[in-house]
Design brief:
It is a single chain. The protein is α+β, with helices and mostly antiparallel strands and about 325 residues long. About 45% of the residues lie in helices and about 20% in strands. It has 2 domains: about 200 residues, Sandwich (Jelly Rolls); about 120 residues, Homeodomain-like (Arc Repressor Mutant, subunit A, Orthogonal Bundle), CATH 1.10.10. The chain is built from 11 helices and 12 strands. The strands form 2 sheets. A 7-stranded antiparallel β-sheet has the order 1-3-4-11-6-9-12, sandwiched between helices. α2 packs across α4, α3 runs antiparallel to α4 and α5 crosses α6. The longest helix has 29 residues. The relative contact order is 0.10.
Length: about 325
């Protein structure tokens, strides 16, 4: 049976709770901007031993952990990102940046933080972890399924995309046909996992260059975290702090889909947001200097571009609006 849900059918005050119940009962979900109303749509096709879903929403954060997984619902998700972007462990040091067209294997039991970008559309099939373990031959983890890792990944991605399109156009396919398509998707997913297990032992082992990139990337991030307050921090200083040349530093960040200064800017902005949310009083000039931004005006523009509000507006939303509502 195909089920549909849209945030437009639910009062804004309870949308997030309802979204958790119907689409994310295995995880903790929060909007990226406090107080923002959730806009989302979701379709689900249930089978006896798997289910398929396709959803699209405004930006939000999702945290996974074993404590969020209900008894008897230990599932693993194979997900195709059809639109937008998703960052896994979205903080300094993040190790996955998925963009449209990428296929991934995700285990809700693993501790992780996902940031879904504005308008991201995910189409996925969920299978019991025990079934995935048997097909894969090892414990499943969070992994991008590239053609280099798994020869059948493009075939499964195409299947998920087409089934997602049909699910968003109710009436074109009968219940019997949906059941057959779901069975076929499950069979192809298991075939893909077996192929991944057979190919993956060698493909998953990073080569020496990947190890060197990962080490330099981690060292640079640690140096950034310690010195992010310094206004003169640039790629040359960071490279010296990480013990490598600027060329190797750029290569290490490019291997993660990042730029050096982009990662530093993100670290500083996340730190600034944390300060805003935990400080009863706000002085934008002092905050910008404390977080490594020399110009308060530039800092405010970057903060707004990243989070949708200025530092002052964010502080007001976090600290003043709840107090006003309580006093009303």
């Amino acid at each position: 049976m195909l089920e549909h849900w849209s945030s437009s059918e639910v009062d804004p005050s309870i949308r997030l709770d309802y979204w958790r119940d119907v689409a994310h009962n295995w995880v903790d979900v929060q909007p990226l901007s406090p107080g923002d109303a959730l806009e989302a749509s979701w379709s689900l096709l249930r089978g006896e031993n798997c289910f398929f879903g396709t959803k699209r929403s405004t930006a939000y954060e999702m945290r996974t952990s074993p404590r969020h997984v209900p008894p008897g619902e230990d599932m693993v998700v194979i997900s195709l990102l059809e639109a937008g972007e998703m960052r896994l462990n979205a903080a300094p040091g993040e190790h996955q940046h998925a963009t449209a067209g990428m296929l991934g294997l995700y285990a809700p039991r693993q501790e992780a933080c996902y940031h879904w970008g504005e308008g991201a559309r995910q189409t996925y099939v969920a299978l019991p972890r025990s079934v995935v373990l048997a097909a894969l031959g090892r414990e499943p983890g969070n992994l991008l399924l590239t053609p280099q890792r798994c020869a059948l990944a493009p075939a499964l991605a195409a299947q998920l995309a087409h089934l997602g399109l049909l699910a968003r156009q109710p009436g074109r396919v009968s219940a019997v046909e949906y059941a057959g398509l779901l069975d076929a998707t499950r069979a192809l997913a298991l075939l893909t996992l077996r192929n991944l297990g057979r190919q993956g032992e060698a493909a998953d082992l990073p080569d020496l260059e990947e190890n060197l990139h990962a080490g330099r990337h981690a060292a640079a991030l640690r140096f950034m975290e310690q010195h992010a307050h310094r206004q003169g921090l640039d790629a040359a200083v960071i490279a010296r702090g990480a013990g490598c040349s600027r060329t190797r530093l750029y290569e290490a960040f490019a291997a993660q889909g990042q730029t050096v200064m982009g990662a530093l800017r993100e670290l500083r902005l996340q730190r600034a947001r944390a300060f805003v949310e935990h400080s009863p009083r706000l002085h934008v000039g002092a905050l910008s200097w404390r977080c490594g931004f020399a110009d308060p005006s530039d800092f405010s523009k970057l903060f707004r571009a990243r989070f949708g509000l200025s530092p002052t507006e964010w502080h007001r939303r976090v600290w003043m609006e709840p107090a006003l509502r309580r006093g009303a």
